[in-house]
Write a structure and sequence with these properties.
By secondary structure, the chain is α/β, with parallel strands linked by helices. The chain has two domains: 62 residues, 3-Layer(aba) Sandwich (Rossmann fold); 273 residues, Alpha-Beta Horseshoe (pyruvate-formate lyase- activating enzyme), CATH 3.80.30. The protein has twelve helices and 15 strands. The longest helix is centred in the C-terminal third of the chain and has 18 residues. It is globular.
């Protein structure tokens, strides 16, 4: 079967904060965009980018997804990132993929453009302070809370910088998850086993209908093999776990597909994270506006209300349906990856 691979992201337009040009990465990106003849504009802040208007909200959204904003991360108070890590590591914000279910549809509702931050040294220095505060406890940092950093790594090199930095931290660990396969720049750098690279995987139905502009599943699995052979701890996030006709069979087939790769089944440090599909009323409205033909079913009457930490209502599967999802996935993982650790089901 021929697999069509996505190309590396190159924006259709780019905005720079003036202060970003004071940093080496900012200067490098400016020259690169000039050489590529990408239209360049200036903006006073990466939080206030104007001129992205289309005729409809959906058109504006698509314009923003093809826009790169280069800025300085001024707030160096890291957000918590439970349950995957103690803190988020803010290397980038936003994503060029079009996953229908993504929580960034609401978290970044008015700012869906792709942002990268040029003050990476300052961000890593702050990470070091957090590590020192918690030592001798290990502090984990999640680099993919609000982005897919691998998708812009060819532009920034920020992941390589963070991986090298974390390799030297006795009590620091890095982790990120991706739906892309562009791992080559990470394979030959020192990581010290301190970075866990995870891949988002799902049933064929979910990948086909809900994950446009991402790498095909086979390419993600091949990339997972490469990082496993490079000695990285690896992981798989199966999310969102979504119930559809034939879901049980397809999720079991997914695990069996992964298990046919010896470099994965023979790896001694593999984790799984299991996250059921959820949505909010606001998310449903935004998703249907941006993807009006989506097959994603969001029926509040068939779901259970779960309150978030700020009291906001989200809709998850009812207890018996969630339990069935958990049982099917955990049983398949135990059979296909007996050495793996399931970090959580939520």
């Amino acid at each position: 079967m021929n697999v069509i691979a996505p190309t590396l992201f190159m924006p259709e337009q780019v905005y720079f904060e003036p202060d970003a040009l004071e940093y080496p990465l900012g200067k490098t990106l400016y020259r690169r965009m000039l050489d590529a003849r990408v239209p360049i504009r200036m903006t006073t802040s990466h939080n206030q980018v104007r001129g992205l208007s289309g005729k409809t909200d959906a058109q504006t959204y698509r314009i923003a997804k093809k826009t790169l904003v280069v800025g300085v991360k001024r707030s160096l108070k890291f957000e918590p990132s439970k349950p995957s890590a103690e803190y988020a590591l803010p290397l980038a914000t936003g994503c060029m993929a079009h996953c229908h279910y993504c929580y960034l549809n609401t978290n970044l509702s008015t700012k869906p453009y792709v942002r990268v931050y040029v003050n990476v040294e300052e961000i890593l220095a702050q990470a070091k302070r957090y590590i020192e505060e918690r030592a001798p406890e290990v502090t984990r940092f999640e680099a993919a809370c609000t982005s897919d950093p691998l998708a812009v790594e060819h532009l920034t090199g920020s992941l390589q910088q963070a991986i090298r930095f974390m390799a030297d931290q006795l009590y620091g660990r890095l982790r990120f998850v991706t739906k892309f396969h562009f791992v080559e720049p990470l394979l030959s750098i020192p990581h010290g086993g301190h970075t866990r690279i995870r891949f988002s995987v799902n049933a064929d139905f979910v990948v086909k209908y809900f994950e446009p502009s991402t790498s095909p599943l086979d390419l993600r699995i091949e990339a997972a093999e490469k990082v496993a052979r490079a000695g990285y701890p690896i992981g798989f996030i199966v999310a969102p776990l979504y119930r559809f006709e034939g879901w049980q069979q397809q999720y079991v087939q997914l695990l069996e597909r992964l298990a046919r790769r010896p470099s994965l089944t023979n790896h001694d440090d593999v984790t799984f994270e299991l996250i059921q599909h959820r949505f909010t009323a606001v998310a449903k409205s935004v998703i249907l506006q941006r993807y009006p033909k989506t097959k994603l079913v969001m029926d509040e009457e068939k779901r259970k209300i779960k309150r978030g930490k700020y009291g906001r209502a989200k809709y998850v599967y009812r207890d018996e349906e969630a339990a069935e999802l958990q049982h099917v996935l955990e049983a398949a993982i135990a059979r296909c990856f007996p050495q793996a650790r399931i970090e959580y089901f939520t």
